[in-house]
Amino acid sequence: MTSKKDVYFVIGGSGFVGRHIVEQLLRRGDNVSVFDIVQRYHDVPFYSGDISDQEQVSTALRRSGATCIIHTASPPAGLSDPALYWKVNVDGTKAVIAAAVQNNVRKLVFTSSAGVVFNGASLTNVDERLSPPERPMDAYNESKQKAEEAVIAANGKDGLLTVALRPAGIFGPGDRQVMAGLYKVYEDGKTHYQIGDNNNLFDWTYVENVAHAHLLAADKLDHSPPAPLFSTLEKTPLEAPPLTEAELDILNHPLPPLDLTVGRRCIPTSQGRPLGPYVTLPSDSEKLLAAFEEKRTHPEGRPVVRTRFDPLSEPNLFRAKFNDPATSPLQVAGQVFYITNGEPCYFWDMPRLVWNHLDTMFPGHRQKRAYTVLSATVGLAVAFGAECWGWLIGKEPAMTKFKVTYSCVDRWHNIEKARRVLGYEPQVGLADGVQRMVEWWRTEYAAGSHKTAH
């Protein structure tokens, strides 16, 4: 573990996620510089360059004195330019890795995507054991998948330590995709349309939570593994050895519930309960009420019980160590982690929350009307026709098969590994995050940054 503070180099630091990472680093007093193609902020040293040019990246690294790279740069999803995705995400990431090795940079944190494992089918509580599909859904996720593979393969090579984070459905202040798309639907009066039955759960992640996870990963990237790596032993064990005390410390403490949005509920018991209508209060009434309120503030953790299907069970930990003897599934280096709010919600509930906030800005703009619900099958048929028409006229259709599929399947992820190994806990809940995003958008609107018909 290093004793001195890192010097941070945020690639893509002018972008959505990158900027929030820079702001969090500045708030805690860290030394940080930015590498990007456009300079939008002037509070940190800035280096302009082409990420796919190793020499440009290397020169900037050398001048900045960086010891830790946080690589967030990527074109936005949804572009019809596979070559651009490959140039930035694949060639660019490989150039970053080479430049890091060339300049003896110790750490590399890479922003991947939960979409790298999406194949069009439902993903329900999936964890990091799920392998990416051979044929990703689109060029964006294909390039992210290849970039992530390169990052993980580089771990331990020439002293470089790497980790990849997979956030899902990022939103928040500064977002130019999710919020812009939802406002366009609102402005066009199409908020009453729904594709699918809205029984599918979907993960959204507030951007400051994503940034927080990156800082945790950077801080813990050079921590020693909690048990000797199999590659350091004289013989590779053929049976699972007993877990070390350090491993048990990671695995066995109860995790608190993720309740930033839904709040916490306490079940009354004979030892702790709210006081109902009494003629004469019980003699221990103050004790009963105090015990109830204490549990509400400091919930007692349930015992950690695992089965062989659990990703962090002893058999699965042993399998991970056996398959990759040079890393530990309970250390940060060489691993991937899902990062979400831990609050999967029905897909259409989040957009409707945004639209309800917009109603306070533009009262009377939306007329009350019943939802027009299209089944997934009908939605796919409509999207197919729109794509054919768009191909004929040379214009990207608003409705595509990918978007229909995206909105009709389950996509939520298990973040226990991130919570236990990174120490990640969401800082901002879904409802609060949506409100913050809309308030930011309201400020932008007031400043004239958005063209509207109002």
UniProtKB/TrEMBL annotation:
UniProt keyword annotations, A-Z = Membrane, Oxidoreductase, Transmembrane, Transmembrane helix
Single GO BP term: steroid biosynthetic process
Note the Gene3D superfamilies from the entry.
NAD(P)-binding Rossmann-like Domain
Kindly name one Pfam family recorded for this protein. 3Beta_HSD
Domain 3-beta hydroxysteroid dehydrogenase/isomerase per the UniProt entry, residue ranges: 10-224
Which GO terms label this protein's molecular function in UniProt? oxidoreductase activity, acting on the CH-OH group of donors, NAD or NADP as acceptor
TM region positions:
370-393
Family (UniProt): Belongs to the 3-beta-HSD family.
Name the record gives this protein: C-3 sterol dehydrogenase
What species does this protein belong to? Rhodocollybia butyracea
